[in-house]
Amino acid sequence: MNGGCLCGNIRFSATGEPDFPHLCSCEHCKKLSGAPVMSWVSFPEEGFAWNGPGGEPTWYETFPQICRGFCPECGSSVASKGDEEGWVGVTITALDDHVALAPVKQSFAHNAVAWMPPLG
């Protein structure tokens, strides 16, 4: 699977199977996205590559040893690292083709906004 940021500066490819597509409504994801949730999916680090002209995204540590990556040009949030060893998280909508991926759970559902029902 391939994907990247809005301007194309940050691009990636993943040859492994996507794992655990989910929504997240933790405070950090809500602040990062400016939205009530972010959508994430993980890929094995082996077979994952940053291949755009900008290389890897710029990383910001949101929790100790957990970073979120964004494009320094357009600001798109595209990735996460450090959540689980051996895996890279990407925002589902950063994928060029994300039609087949539907979130199966919502992390931090207890922190969801009151006007949007949480996902199971």
Automatic annotation (TrEMBL):
Pfam families: GFA. It comes from the Bacteria. InterPro entries: CENP-V/GFA (IPR006913), Mss4-like_sf (IPR011057). Residues 1-105 form the CENP-V/GFA domain. The keyword 4Fe-4S does not apply. Keywords: Lyase, Metal-binding, Zinc. The keyword Metal-binding applies. Belongs to the Gfa family. This is GFA family protein.
